[in-house]
Amino acid sequence: MSNYHIKHLxxxxxxxxxxxxxxxxxxEEIAEEHFVWRKKWDKVLEWDFxxxxxxxxxxxxxxxxxxxxxxxxxxxxNKTAIIxxxxxxxxxxQHISYHQLHEQVCKMANxxxxxxxxxxxxxxxxLPMIPELAFAMLACARIGAIHSIVFAGFSSNxxxxxxxxxxxxxxxxxxxxxxxxxxxxxxxxxxxxxxxxPNVQSVLVVKRTGAEIAMKPGRDKxxxxxxxxxxxxxxxxxxxxEDPLFILYTSGSTGRPKGMVHSTAGYMVYTAYTFKNxxxxxxxxxxxxxxxxxxxxxxxxxxxxxxxxxxTTVLFEGVPSYPDHGRFWEVIEKHKVNQFYTAPTxxxxxxxxxxxxxxxxxxxxxxxxxxxxxPINEEAWHxxxxxxxxxxxxxxxxxxxxxxxxxxxxxxxxxxxxxxxxATLPFIGIQPALMDEHGNELKGNQVEGRLCxxxxxxxxxxxxxGDHDRYRDTYFTxxxxxxxxxxxxxxxxxxxxxxxxxxxxxxxxSGHNLGTAPIEDxxxxxxxxxxSAIVGFPHDVKGNxxxxxxxxxxxxxxxxxxxxxxxxxxxxxxxxxxxxxxDKIQFVSGLPKTRSGKIMRRILxxxxxxxxxxxxxxxxxxxxxxxxxxxxxxx
Length: 635
Ligand code: WTA
Known about the structure:
By secondary structure, the chain is an alpha/beta fold. It folds into two domains: about 1-490, Rossmann fold; about 510-630, GMP Synthetase, Chain A, domain 3 (2-Layer Sandwich), CATH 3.30.300. It has 20 helices and 30 strands. Helix 1 (about 10-20) crosses helix 2 (about 25-35) and helix 13 packs across helix 15 (about 380-390). The longest helix is centred in the first third of the chain and has 17 residues, at about 100-115. About 50% of the residues are buried. The site of 5'-O-[(S)-ethoxy(hydroxy)phosphoryl]adenosine has 22 residues, from helix 11, strand 20, strand 24 and strand 25.
């Protein structure tokens, strides 16, 4: 029996049991049989959650691009690796074969090397969803350099923070990016960011929109020219299993974004194995994940997981609403997509549009539908199932995180019976635990608690860049010997998991994690603002939207309130990005606080959600009188 491709429920249970009884033997077999190594490991697993220290396949040597590209060349060289579907449907799609991918990645690696990039260096990539983004990340991996991809919707301030945190000396960007009918001045954002980044020596610029941009002599260079003259082969640098492959920033509930560090071998093995099973990928299928590569979903399931399996993966530059709300369905028909992986927020937005947009397209190629990023509500699940899947394609509601590297709790399509709103069962090798508030594990079924994982899996993030203590404190101190996810979950009568949402101050808006603290800091920088508190409230498309309670320095501040609201959102857009804008802003004369001065967000959350019938005990507050005042003035 091959454990690599699970096809029946009984087989899932058997393989799961094996993976949990003897994880080392299990993962060793998967790693041995399905990947190419320059040197095998000395030890499969070494771990200690109290330090925390986790090492998989220690002593092994490899290059992930040999697994994602070179090894396919003899058998799949002319197969399409990447289908690039541009923002504008009138622009022709590109089919990039494994041979072409190899050549482009090697050229890019040579250019980076010529610009001084070596093994272990950090390279910041700030690009739209164009083929060069894939080439650049793989080129870094080819050199053994660590890529740090920043989602190209982040502001200059967010970008400079990330560049400086990882001490990147080089940035890869483009003149601009398209977003539906609009184009965005990416290079201008980079220029502004670099005013704060004295260590950046080179900026390599892809020409995408043809916009007029400033090029700083000595620092900025057009990439196309360099690539044209670069050599199309590059001997892959051999790295150790535990060498970092990339850094990817994610929001925490407090403080600066966390640069999650993923290692090479474990990440490769786990993303490849999950990709194969969670999407039941078969040779010649076309897989499409609509996420941006700037998020973990794009890293793991547009690039590394699919390419490690020799798959054909779609890279889509556009948005679901351009040129109209049928774009997703048009692309599925055009490229005969077999597996489609998207976010509940996109499904909810498209479900609001006329059904004709879906029905006029032939979606019969679809075999598997995926969902990720936030809980998928029942209504959206049924809409997706009925109208996109025509009740024929199982929906995989996949729960995982930037920190987990790969999918953790999920059905296996055609294997696990699905239930709307349930991510169902742990993936092979994953040992979830639900904990109560006293730190005890809740055994048995029909329990609800905080979701932890009790045993390491190969793609767990190894640290936070430059701050191992924060890594330990955030994930490994809440519950002894457990990785704490920050999510709540329940286990039903048959053992299926449903994720109930974040239990910390991270709010998921349209599938994006937003920490409240950085947004509050951004608001507080407005000269008229004394203090603020952000909470989430339910939103029918975004899942959650942001509600800001803002206290002004001068209570009687006479300025136009609407203007102030605009200025506050402008401030957030500049410091973080438009994704963190507030839907509602209420000016208040005070914020409810405990006697120790902590803002009682629980109360604010209830007020923002219009659920004030049971606010709990407010008598212990320092200023209970503000609660009624806030309720009376709800916007
Ligand atoms: C949430 C995205 C419910 C969860 C891969 C998690 C989900 C956070 C699901 C991580 C799901 C993700 N059901 N909630 N299927 N998938 N989440 O780091 O709160 O961007 O902790 O990784 O998204 O978001 P991140």
